[in-house]
Amino acid sequence: MASSFKYPDITRSEIIGYLAHFGFASNVTEQDLLNPTRELVENIYTHLLNYLDLIQEDDEQADFAALEVFHNPDLHVSTVPVMNLLHKMRGLLAAIDCPGQFTLWDLIKPDPDRTKLFLGSLLNFCTHRTIKMDELTSLAGELDVFVEQKQALEEKLSQLNAEITQCNELRAREALLVQEEEAKVKELKQTIAGLNNHQVSLKSETRKMKERAQELDELTSNVEFELVQSAQENAHLRYKIVQSPDKLQRALEEKKSHQVEAKNTERAAMQAFQDKNATLELYTKALKKMSKSLEQMKAIQEQANSVKSVEKEIKALKCKLGEDEMLDKSLDAKLVEKQGKADQLDEMKKKVEIECILAREEATKELNNVKSQVESTRNGLLLRKKQVETVIAEGDAVNAKIISVGENAESQCQQLKLKHEEVAKEFMMYSNKVGDVLKRYRVDPPTQQ
């Protein structure tokens, strides 16, 4: 899989800074990178693989298990970890599309330029991986925050729904109370109208009774005046009786007639007085009734006032209901807004989950590729191990032959040396003899003219 990062030219000082940043404990200098040693590059590569979590705890056990296969494991104690590191480095560099091919020679006899290339590739990948992991961590943190906000919004939404349900229940109850109070108000208005009509009729009757009482008072005053006049006439008649009996007789007759008339008038006055008493009693009863009616009117007035207060309360409740409706509308708008935010959070969560799934799939693919490479490399290593074992066996046989041939050659060399010494002695003896003969027959060279 192609990586999304590039391979910029990183200087050796930058490589040292990156190594310190990624926790490489050893103090590495530029001179160390210019003349890299096997131990240094192995430590750096192992540290970076550990940082990338590519070295498992079972690798050492696998190395020991691999050593058990060899006939002489002591000779391969350092070889198996190196081959394991070589295999992991090849798989990692191939996965990140490194332009260079990592070989065993880069571990045993590292070249400065190739080491710089491989370290730059690994450090670039580590930096890229750290950035991506930080982004994923921040996204995961934001996702957790979004989930918490969503839960808080859902709780608040449930609370608002419960409050809306309570408001609706209260509205229904208050609507029933309002209907009952409106029915009571209508009944009270009808009662007030009837009582007002009754009050008007009572006022008219009272007015009539007052007029009748005035008439009776005038009649009573007239009767009293006539009684006074009759008393004066009686006194005058008594005086006349003393003066003239005839006249007195006539006067008595007239008086009798007048007395009859007075008695009739008195009867009429008594009747009028009784009528007046009856009228007074009637007035008293009417007054009691009017006082009762007045008390009823006051009670009705109080009920009307209470009705007005109830109407005011109903208006206040209606205003409150209107405010509750406005609040419900605003809460519905907020609910729609929060639902939109919740949908956005769900979409972001789905996107993040999809990205995580894709990243997991990519990592799984890389892991499968690395595992397949590891398996193929392991099979190759097994074949090479068998070949190495056969070569080692052949080498042991060759070594045995070489040892036997060396021993034979050494014995032959000894013999040849002895013969050489004997030949040399004979040659020396022969040369001495030849020298003596030549001295005898030596002739001086001719002189030039």
Automatic annotation (TrEMBL):
What are the Kinetochore protein Nuf2 N-terminal domain coordinates in residue numbering?
5-142
Q: Which family does it belong to?
A: Belongs to the NUF2 family.
Q: Which UniProt keywords apply?
A: Cell cycle, Cell division, Centromere, Chromosome, Coiled coil, Mitosis
- Protein name (database record): Kinetochore protein Nuf2 N-terminal domain-containing protein
Which positions are tagged coiled coil? Answer: 136-222, 300-380
A GO term (biological process) for this protein?
Answer: cell division
**Would the keyword Cell division turn up in this protein's UniProt record?**
yes
Q: What taxonomic ancestry is recorded?
A: Eukaryota, Viridiplantae, Streptophyta, Embryophyta, Tracheophyta
Question: What would be one Gene Ontology cellular-component term for the protein?
Answer: Ndc80 complex
InterPro entries, alphabetically?
A: Kinetochore_Nuf2_N, Nuf2_N_sf
> What does the UniProt entry say about where the protein is found?
Chromosome, Centromere
